[in-house]
Predict the structure.
Amino acid sequence: MKYDDFVYTRMMQAKKTKRLETMLRDAIRHFPELHGESISVGYTKRLGEAEIRRLLIRLNPRKLSYYVIGHELTHLVQGLKDRLGDHAIPKGEIACDIWTIARSDLFLDEPPGYLDVGRRVLLNWTSHRNRVRSLCIEAIEKRKIRRTYIQWLTAEIRSSSQ
Ligand SMILES: [Zn+2]
């Protein structure tokens, strides 16, 4: 099985667009942990959802961003905890955002929905996003020795955006 073969639900088959398929293919290249897995893609009216056990994500073709796709795929990787050992991604929405941002700059097209980056960064995301990404990568390293890595990260993002 090719790594970019997705199984679309019946609802999504009717709703999906060329753009959605292209964006999904672009996104999955950055998720080697999921290559060879059969990922289902369904439809939601909301932004996005993931059902880890069913290896299913739901997307809204009208509210698409690489950030949302990356975030939902990262949830699926969170579900592979046992298999990934030291490389496992901790659970939770904020961790999901941090690991999504760190993964590739492809996923920086929108600011994160759960990681608190502060107003200043939120209002001018494009000029801050690369720095936020570097800090997320650093925070993932920090986590190995420091469990309060999220507090460290949000403080660091704020202090360097003054
Ligand atoms: Zn989420």
